[in-house]
Specification:
64% helix
Length: 146
């Protein structure tokens, strides 16, 4: 399963699409839907095509606030769609650190195993983990004083 799964996960090896960040994936989708070129967007944002391409592919850290705002302006995005793209940018750090110094030993184990084994997870397994996290987040939102 390892080699196949690695090509489908964000942190795995393989081709460019498998390494994309959520922000990069959305930006590429928006450009393609609108028939826009990466070089034109890069010029508008005041960055090189190489930098913007690397950002899309997850080879750079999450985008700066200025770049996010420029991207929103470039695509004429407002309101909910702007909030969603900003959220995706915030969740697009390709090299994540997790501080478990105040967590339980089991939570530290989960964080370490996830760091080591995420590249071996199938798309379905990643989706299952996301569903668990979404459920926990929803539960916390419904709990008064949480």
């Amino acid at each position: 399963m390892g080699a196949r799964a690695r090509s489908t996960c964000a942190s795995g090896g393989g081709g460019a699409p498998s390494r994309m960040t959520p922000f990069g994936e959305k930006v590429r989708q928006l450009r393609r839907e609108r028939g826009l070129l990466l070089k034109d967007m890069a010029a508008h944002l005041g960055v090189s095509s190489a930098y913007l391409s690397a950002l899309e592919r997850g080879e750079r850290g999450k985008p700066t606030w200025t770049l996010i705002q420029g991207t929103l302006q470039y695509f004429h995005i407002i309101w909910d769609e702007a909030d969603e793209l900003t959220r995706l940018a915030d969740m697009s750090e390709p090299r994540v650190k997790i501080d478990t110094s105040h967590a339980t030993p089991r939570a530290t184990l989960v964080a370490n195993r996830l760091a080591r084994e995420i590249g071996d997870l199938s798309d379905g397994e990643v989706e299952a983990l996301l569903a668990i996290l979404d459920e926990a987040q929803d539960r916390l939102r419904r709990t008064p004083g949480a």
